[in-house]
Write a structure and sequence with these properties.
By secondary structure, the protein is an alpha/beta fold. The chain has a domain of about 180 residues: Rossmann fold (3-Layer(aba) Sandwich). About 40% of the residues lie in helices and about 15% in strands. The chain has 10 helices and 9 strands. Helix 7 links the parallel strand 6 and strand 7. Helix 6 packs parallel to helix 7. The longest helix is centred in the middle third of the chain and has 21 residues. It is globular, with a radius of gyration of 22 Å. The protein starts with a strand and ends in a 7-residue tail after the last helix. It comes from Oenococcus kitaharae DSM 17330.
Length: about 260
């Protein structure tokens, strides 16, 4: 284990404004991590993303794009929580990153822009032996080494998995917020395989997800966020799992209640 525990300091809990009014902050004293993979589950608005962002900011993590999170206006509200979270480590390092599904397309565009800019600069240097070419050649070499496939010419799912395949490292902490977003069920299993390979090399993952497939990762701690705070539950207790099982067993029951003309379907 890398990150062992997060302790929430109580001095700010009297405030009734976001983010200090989030149930997981108001009603939770600590989170202990006992497995390499921890799954955060809960309805929309339960605060999963806010918790992930708070952990990332407290760890001074970088985004998958390489940009720091601290002092980023997008995280200004959550950054107020950072002084009230105390992270306790077994082994701390700066490896890993914070990933949000919303950042994925931006990352692809930025990577392609770096490649295009380097190619354009090289085309302006007429002397093939000029030392001015070196930094741009290095950029193209690094991108080709990190991403052997052209990320702009494959599907989002293929690019998504390729990025994780090339960026997961041993002994690193990864914070993944809804990583299943662009993936089919089969490709979610591919992602689980990549996660497991990294775990075998000492990596640790904290994952916020709505996917029953990701939630099923074996021997993991599942923590549910709700109006009553945060508690550990089993896979079979996850509301999304129960709902999906019931729906797949008899979808017509749900449609009969949802549609007024269900008899004609």
């Amino acid at each position: 284990m890398l990150l062992k525990e997060i302790i929430f300091r109580t001095s700010a809990k009297k405030e009734n404004t976001y983010p200090f009014n989030l149930p997981w902050f108001l009603q939770t004293d600590k989170i202990r991590f006992s497995t390499p993979v921890t799954i955060l589950v809960g309805d929309n608005g339960s605060g999963k993303s806010s918790l992930m962002e708070a952990i990332a900011l407290s760890n001074q993590a970088i985004a998958m794009t390489g940009q720091p999170l601290l002092h980023n206006p997008e995280y200004a509200a959550i950054e107020k929580l950072e002084p009230y979270l105390s992270l306790h480590w077994q082994q701390q390092n700066k490896r890993g990153f914070f990933f949000r599904a919303d950042d994925f397309i931006s990352f692809i565009r930025e990577t392609q822009q770096r490649k295009y800019d380097a190619q354009q600069e090289l085309s302006q240097i007429q002397d093939p032996h000029s030392l001015a070419r070196i930094p741009y050649l290095h950029t193209l070499y690094d991108l080709a080494r990190l991403y052997p496939i052209d990320l702009d010419k494959v599907s989002h799912a293929e690019a998504f998995l390729e990025i994780f395949k090339t960026r997961f490292r041993p002994n690193a902490l990864y914070l993944l917020d809804e990583p299943e977003a662009p993936l089919t069920s089969e490709n979610q299993l591919s992602l689980i395989y990549l996660i497991h390979e990294a775990v075998l090399q000492g990596a640790q993952f904290i994952i916020a997800t709505h996917s029953p497939i990701i939630m099923a990762y074996p021997k993991t701690d599942i923590m549910q966020l709700s109006d009553t705070g945060l508690k550990k539950i089993s896979y079979d207790q996850i509301p999304q799992v129960s709902f999906l099982r019931n729906f797949l067993d008899s979808p017509e029951r749900y449609f009969s209640k949802l549609f007024s003309d269900s008899d004609d379907l």
